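About this split. The held-out portion is used to measure sequence recovery: a designer receives only the structure tokens and must propose an amino acid at every position. Recovery is the fraction of positions where the proposal matches the reference. Here is one held-out target exactly as it appears in the evaluation file.
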């Protein structure tokens, strides 16, 4: 595996899920695979789960992780080409990437969408520079438009907890005080469309995701109707994707979309999921996230599993 951004990069989903099951059961079985290998984890933005689960996955494989926080541990980096560097950014990605690549075998990059320029974000400008100038396998640790390690962990979790062969999975928009990227809902939609689930997306009008990620998923604007009979409720906020409204803007803070007990009551005793971090009583009520049907902790734990499968495959193809 040379890169990990889209569901297509993982190949057969059944095989990937079986590999995830094996990795979870025997995480140290491939300890010699990463011997004398280094992974560089580059963070342009904050993280709890991605940072820790990626390090844990690397250590399980016997690989040495190096974490670099851009702008804190390093110089501030310029990401745009052709600019006069007379501001506070001391180094350009064009030099920094090959230098970082010279110290490692695999690179993981977290680089959020700026939410100002849709074309810049949706062409994955920063991530593509890592691919172009590193010559190393690159993992998106949440880039401008995708968060594949999260979506793979979400699918592993659904597979572990499903009570039906083909469960109904509903991804619902929920309110948030700040404008958030679309990477998590984009990837979740992409992965659910590839999985054997009945997938429904619900959000207020204006929040339509990019058609490349929505695919053939059913979009239902009536949240309660969408949630009827659901087996899994996946809550997430996202800002306007710029398909039917102004890119990156908050169009609604309608608290009637907060997932609470009344929403869960119309489901088929659904499990609640969220990628975390989550704003309690904005995205989800305390009673729902604290209920025994909340999967947020096992879902986060599976981030180490999804990361280990991806790193294992990259090490095997070096
Ligand atoms: N879900 C997720 O990616 O969490 P972090 O932002 O804490 O890494």
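Reference sequence for scoring:
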């Amino acid at each position: 595996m040379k890169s990990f951004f889209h569901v297509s990069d993982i190949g057969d989903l059944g095989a990937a899920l079986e590999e995830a099951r094996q990795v979870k059961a025997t995480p140290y079985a491939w300890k010699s695979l990463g011997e004398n290998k280094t992974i560089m984890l580059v963070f342009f933005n904050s993280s709890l789960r991605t940072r820790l689960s990626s390090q844990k996955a690397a250590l399980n494989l016997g690989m040495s992780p190096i974490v670099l926080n851009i702008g804190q541990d390093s110089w501030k980096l310029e990401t745009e080409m052709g600019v006069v560097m007379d501001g506070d950014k001391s180094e350009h990605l064009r030099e920094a990437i090959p230098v970082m690549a010279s110290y490692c075998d695999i690179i993981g990059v977290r680089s959020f969408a700026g939410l100002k320029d849709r074309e810049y974000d949706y062409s994955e400008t920063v991530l593509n520079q890592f691919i172009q100038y590193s010559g190393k396998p690159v993992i998106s640790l949440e880039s401008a438009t995708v968060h594949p390690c999260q979506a793979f962990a979400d699918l592993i979790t659904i597979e572990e907890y499903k009570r039906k062969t083909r469960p109904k999975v509903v991804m619902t928009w929920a309110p948030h005080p700040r404008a958030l990227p679309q990477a998590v809902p984009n990837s979740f939609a992409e992965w659910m469309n590839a999985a054997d689930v009945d997938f429904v997306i619900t959000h207020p009008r204006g929040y339509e995701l990019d058609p490349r990620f929505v695919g053939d998923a059913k979009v239902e604007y009536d949240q309660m109707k969408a949630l009827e009979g659901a087996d899994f409720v996946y809550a997430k906020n996202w800002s306007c994707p710029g398909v039917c409204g102004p890119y990156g803007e908050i169009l609604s803070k309608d608290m009637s979309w907060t997932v609470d007990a009344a929403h869960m009551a119309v489901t088929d005793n659904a499990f609640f999921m969220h990628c975390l971090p989550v704003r309690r009583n904005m995205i989800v009520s305390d009673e729902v996230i604290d209920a025994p049907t909340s999967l947020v902790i096992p879902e986060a734990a599976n981030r180490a599993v999804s990361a280990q499968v991806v790193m294992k495959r990259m090490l095997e193809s070096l």
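Annotator remark: The domain at 3-146+303-317 is CATH 3.40.50.1370 (Rossmann fold).
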